[in-house]
What does this fold into?
Amino acid sequence: MNTLESQLLYPWADALPAPDTALEVAPGVRWLRMGLPFALDHINLWLLRDRQPGPGGMVEGWTVVDCCVATEAARAQWEAIFATQLEGLPVLRVIVTHMHPDHIGLAHWLCQRWQAPLWISATDYYTARLACHAGPGLHSESATDFYAAHGLRDPDFLAHVRGRSRYYPSLVPSVPDHFHRLLDGDRLRIGAHHWHCLSGYGHAPEHIALHCPDLGVLISGDMVLPRISTNVSVYASEPDADPLRLFLASLERMRALPSDTLVLPSHGRPFRGLHQRLDQLRAHHASHLDTVLAACQRAPQSAADILPLLFTRALDAHQSTFAMGEALAHLHLLWHAGQLQRHTDSDGVLRFAPAA
It folds into this structure.
């Protein structure tokens, strides 16, 4: 446990749900944990006891929140959950917090398997459908040009990016043809309780977290994680974006929730200490912004120049794509705020320097 983690309260300490079991964390709220084939090796998923109208009256069952990637291992784990953890009841609805593969990958399969509707923000739904077809800017040729323009021109790295044109569809082969739109401020009746939708920006196009005031529970998705900071990136598809400003503003909106809220994150362990974690994340990004600004004051910097200042550990090619996006997010916040200016150097690389 690092120093920042120790400032949070973990009600279940080091306990984790076994691969084929669910751990109840609040009345009618169960925690699942599934493996991922990445350095971030797990995702937390949630079962919410539900009750929905059916052809013959009200039907008891479950709402699933998030899905895992589309792998045979994940499907097998879900089948074990269906056999042993649902008390013989069906899945009535599938809610997806956002369009990243570990969250939406098996949504199509789950919705077909149970004839259950998908609930997601419209922005993330349509972005996922586009990404399934390897749309522009998503690890394609335009992405290699984008990284090269920002100074990362290592041939092996660019070959890696160029070879990932089918990366998203390999993890999200399909998305359901229909969906129910989730909007900020919506109230969903799930079983005995209302859950409020909280939109968040900067990490995904329109991330939806779920807060239940009755239970004092926040399903935070990727917006608030206890151990790591959420990736906030600029992508080739929106090359001049300012996602970090949007992300920080989204976090501040969560400060309106009670400080003792039980936070159920997508990665890491459930915790209490929401306001403390919001303070930590704000301080983390403020420190990064200070580092970036100081570097640009010494000499014009590209995003590639910034990488070793923000990420002191060795990065593989996969990690470098996220790191480049994050470096740009910090540069762009300062650029859009008028503290930096951007120009194209004689070598064709975009560099940032103090505004005149």
Summary: The longest strand covers residues 42-54. The radius of gyration is 21 Å.
